[in-house]
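Moderator note: this is an archived Q&A kept for reference. The question asked for a predicted structure of one protein chain; the sequence and the answer are reproduced below.
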Amino acid sequence: MASASGGQVAGARSGAPGSEGRVKDASGASPGPAPRHRGLHARWHDSIAGRLWRHGIDLELLHRAMGFSALGLVTLVPLLIVVAAALPFQERGFALWVIDGMSLSGRPAEAVRELFAAPRKVLSATSALSVLLVVLFGVTFAASVQNGYERIWEVPSGPWHHVWRRVVWLAALTGYLYAETQSGAALRGVTAQSVLRIVLTSLLGVLFFWWGQHFLLGERVRWGALLPGSIATMAGLGGLRWFSDQVFSPLIATNAVTYGAVGTMLVVQSWLIGVGFVVFGGPLLGRHVHDAWQRRGD
């Protein structure tokens, strides 16, 4: 009995499984980095960036941005062109909004103008069925934006009879886009007018996206919680405008020569994906900034 227990003790001291082998590796050193890695992972998991990353994956942010681009192209193009044709003003339409939003000038701007129909040629070719299809696609487009906001704020979908909210939001979006593009024509010129235009369009944009979230969410989220996302959206659109001027504008100039209208359309489609990413990414960032403020307050 004594010799057997002594052998067991000797086996444990000699490095048998379950003893020192769990504490030291083959070289005799302790595996210290593992706890540190777990600590870094825990800090990332609880940080704003980590929460934002996981929520963006659950939201399928890039997928939604691509859907926004596709629906926006089949909705906003005919909608803005038809509405522009019915208004007694010149230089209105989807092309002008793209030119203004992408900060295009010269040959790239001309390529975008050539891509889309002139407004004065549209009304005579527009039928009741065409208008009905535009409205149908427009409501679907608004529904996709509404669903994205609901997923961001984790609220249930609204009842089906609230479809009127989508129609109202779509009309407000059309008015906002026209006001933004026409401000460029009215306040183009000296530096003071340019600064005034930036201030006015930024303020108008924050108000629109602030109201749009509150309205499409059925007034189920407080105004104060939605404000950071509205500011982040306008900041993102401003950054996208600068990026378009630096990257997309030269691409349009080269693609229009190499690939013609198809090349221009591909660049415009890529820009619309960026717009969709900002439209959903801004409120997503605002949601987590607001939640972080609340946690600190508690």
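Archived answer notes: The two ends are 63 Å apart (CA to CA).
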